[in-house]
Amino acid sequence: MEFKKIIAGAFVYVAKYRQVLLKALAIPFGIYLLIDALALLDLHPLLRWVFTALGIGVQAIFAITTHRVVLLGPSSVSTWGITSWTKRETAFVLHILGLSLLMIPFGLVGIVPVVGAVVALFLICWVTGRLSLVFPGIAVDKGVSFKESWEMTENYQILMFLVVILFPVLLAIPVIVLNFIPYTFLLASFISTVVVVFQVAALSMAYQLISNEI
After folding, report:
1. How big is the CA angle at 55 (ends 102 and 211), to the nearest 5 degrees?
2. Which residues neighbour 13 within 8 Å (Cβ) at sequence distance 6 or greater?
3. Which of 11, 135, 150, 173 is surrounded by the most beta carbons within 10 Å?
């Protein structure tokens, strides 16, 4: 029931604030599509690293903007979204990198024969779900840490798995299908970026629900 409520809320809020989100996300949306297009070129490895770093920054701005609009309302961002880099964005990116580093030991479990890959995937999904509330927390200036997210999700472990893992996978099905069709890379990139809005909105709804209940 809570999962359905969260997903319904995500779609309702995205629809309600669609005009605001369209303007506020237009610039990072365009930059992200451009980065994806450049990835098709035979670039120098150093340039690829630069574009990867830029992509992470754009993802952070994209997610923070969506979290703030959904959780704090349209007035929480300017008309054209976030146009300056602050401690908030830095903290968001550092937590993205931190979460990625935390996944490395679990990924190493995958080398275990037979069951390793399955166990590694389960651990990565479970821990990611438990720690993901740091992102909406940081976006709305609550400064949620990994430890606090872990504690907040203690009684919502299955719910967080559904919101952070299952829901994005279901939304990504059209993109996965397009990846098997030639010359659809940019279309797949466009759709996947739109999908991120709903994924972030769902995480916002989960953060709001859990914060109100604990």
Report:
1. 55
2. 69, 70, 201, 204, 205
3. 135
Tokens of 44: 């120098």
Q: What six digits make up the tokens of 163? A: 């919101």
Give the span between the Cα atoms of 212 and 204, in whole angstroms. 12
Q: How far is CA 49 from the centre of its chain?
A: 20
pTM reported for the whole predicted model: 0.90
Q: Distances from the Cα of 146 to the Cαs of 20, 89, 99, 112, 131, in angstroms?
A: 30, 16, 9, 28, 5
What is the distance, to the nearest Å, from the Cα of residue 135 to the centroid of all Cα atoms in its chain? Answer: 8
CA–CA separation, 138 and 91 (whole Å): 7
Measured CA to CA, the distance from residue 70 to residue 141 in angstroms comes to 14
**Cβ atoms < 10 Å from Cβ of 15:** 10
Q: What distance in Å separates the CA atoms of residue 81 and residue 94, rounded to the nearest whole number?
A: 21
* Dihedral of the alpha carbons of 165, 11, 137, 31, in degrees to the nearest 10: 80
**pLDDT tens-place string over residues 151-205:** 999 999 999 999 999 999 998 898 888 888 887 877 888 888 889 999 999 999 9
What Rg, from alpha-carbon coordinates, does the chain have? 17
3 state DSSP class of 161: helix
Question: Which three-class secondary structure state does DSSP give residue 155?
Answer: coil
35 pLDDT more than 90 = no
Tokens found for residue 203: 């995480």
Alpha-carbon span 158 to 202, nearest angstrom: 15
